[in-house]
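The methods section describes the discrete structure representation at length, but only in general terms. An entry of this sort, consisting of the sequence and the corresponding backbone structure tokens, reads as follows:
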Amino acid sequence: MSDEKKTRELQDPYSGLVAKCRKLDRRAQRELYEKLSMRMFPVCLRYMGERELAKDVLHDGFITLFSKLSDYRGEGMFEGWARRIFVTACLMQIRKTDILKQAVQIDGESSKAEATLELDPEETAQLDADKLMELIVSMPDGFRTVFNLYAIEGFSHKEISKMLNLSEGGCRSQLSRARAWLQERINKLNSSKEKAK
């Protein structure tokens, strides 16, 4: 193996598999599925909130991924490219089922005040990652979707409003309510831990 190829595989562990998958190598496709599904299922679960829905979206995401593999140019990490496909698959399912229509939108001045609420880092630090993930998965649909896109994926309110067909004010309101919802549950968990001591 050439030094250049070794360096590329160290930088992106999927590069060799992707090259084989482009040649329709079934073993490589299976291996890519097994490796990537462990990383992408939690992403789908975070958005969908239910295991069965997350499995369906994971399946849809892989169909899209394998059909668009020729579009991957090798710029950036493959996992990041793949993650965008799975997030998009989740958003398509969310839009299809209209779960965001149940989310209350508040436009106007009150949402600006709410948007400044931040999670308490000290309280959050006391939780382990699995417990925090459980809380995020159990959020109401609108809260969970906007929180994932903003706090975890790093999209702006403007980008989220276009993705979800919500106003920016509605996105800000959903985010601030999600943070308040999450902070309340974190506080309850931490206080119950203190009482148990």
Remarks:
- Residues 3-97 form a domain with the Rna Polymerase Sigma Factor; Chain: A fold (CATH 1.10.1740.10).
